Amino acid sequence: MLAKRMVASFHARNNSILSSIAHLSVDVLTNPYWAVKPTPLLCNAFTAISSDLTWIRQSDKPYKFKIDYNVFQEPIAVSSLPQSAYSTNESANLFLANLLERKYPNATCIYTDGSVNMGGVGCSFFDPQANVKRQFRLWDESSIYSAEAYAIQVALKYVLDTGAAESSLIIISDSQSVLMKVKSANPSKKMSFLEAEILRLVGLLRATGVQSRFIWIRGHHGITGSTTADSLAKEATQLPLRQLSVFPASDLNRSIKMQLREDWRQMHINYHAGKSYIRAFPNPNTRSWTANMPSRSKSFYRYISRVRTGHCVTRSYLMRIGRESTDLCQQCLEREDAHHLIMTCSRFVSQRNILFQRVAEHVTSPFNLEVLLTSEKIDVYEALVHFLSECDINL
Ligand SMILES: [Zn+2]
Asked: RNase H type-1 domain location, by residue (predicted)?
């Protein structure tokens, strides 16, 4: 994962290193020498993401220094509707219409939206006064944040190019994160190409006498213009792919992370040992099974961990390590493992009735030991530990 992120950040920042990696990667793919040697990590990373590199841009010079300093001197106005405006779809519509009529009667309003849908990413803007609709299919790996920022950027560019606004422009977006970032932009903060471009365009519009202001609205609250922009953006995800813009390298992180998780899952599933554990818990997790539970005694964790992994001190285990001559339960003459002791052994019928009564409230029957363990519920685990202590079973 780190190698991929490193290749992404070399791109455009340090071209000589990137071209060396590219050369070496070609060698790796064509030279029989590498057939018996481990491939350098950076070459694997380069081969995996080289087709995405044309989509990302990072600058050697921070983008904030590429904008006219004047832009930062006048903060960008971002407002939002009060919570009460959203009580119904009609009220949100009405509130926004009133606000625009009352405070900004001569403004040109443009709705923007971004969408990630069925593997594609798209964005759009909609100018209801002029009935102008534009749709853009974006890079498949671009984040929803970038899609929203790109939509705002192209809307500003449209106004600048066509003179669609006389003196006042209002961009209405449902992306709080982009608007907050733009609002709080200042020369001491980092910014991506897309954010810098928004600020630059706002500055250019200001120079032509057009003041831009942003309004944040909640998405999917039936605001007419926003609904139109939303369906345009969804449609745009299925347009043919053309390269319209570049995106920050960090947009690749999501897919790099997902790939890493998938590799981890495959490694977990194909691991040579612990087959019964892997069958019960096929998805490896970054959080421990105890993470969502209130804390319990040491023996609670010991018992549950042993039952979950199948490493219990039972006759079948003792026979495997040479401490017992038989793996059969003395009473039932069946193989004695955790499943036998907890679910079937005839020595513990009355205790088991209590156990089953207790767990029946938390798991749907019929259940087996695996169902109890994979439920990962504290009440079920507590009932199990209670059963073990009542039966005097020391796993
Ligand atoms: Zn038994």
From this structure: 104-238
State pLDDT tens for residues 77-94.
999 888 888 888 788 888
For ligand 1, the distance from its centroid to the CA atom of residue 168, given in whole angstroms, is 83
Pairing of strands 77-80, 108-117: unpaired
Question: Edge-to-edge, what's the strand order for the sheet holding 168-173?
Answer: 77-80, 211-216, 168-173, 108-117, 120-127, 132-138
Q: How far is the CA of 348 from the centre of ligand 1 (A)?
A: 8
**How far apart are the CA of 94 and the centre of ligand 1, in A?**
72
CATH 1.10.1130.10, domain 63-247, yes or no = no
289 CA to centre of ligand 1 in angstroms: 29
Which stretches of 214-348 are DSSP H helices? 224-236, 252-269, 275-280, 298-309, 315-320, 338-339
pTM, two decimals, is: 0.75
Q: Exposure string (b/e) for 220-232, b if CB count within 10 Å is 16 or more? A: ebebebbbbbbeb
Rounded Cα distance, 32 and 233, in Å: 48
Portions of the chain given CATH number 3.30.420.10:
63-247
Model confidence at 192, pLDDT cuts 50, 70, 90, reads confident
Helix-helix angle 176-183:193-207, to 10 degrees: 60
CA–centroid distance, 352 to ligand 1, in Å, is 12
